[in-house]
Amino acid sequence: QVQLQESGPGLVKPSQTLSLTCTVFGGSITTSGYYWSWIRQPPGKGLEWMGAIYSGSAYYNPSLKSRTSISRDTSKNQFTLRLSSVIPEDTAVYYCAVAQTLVVVSATEGYWGQGTQVTVSS
Question: Which residues pair with 92 in a beta bridge?
Answer without folding.
Answer: 118
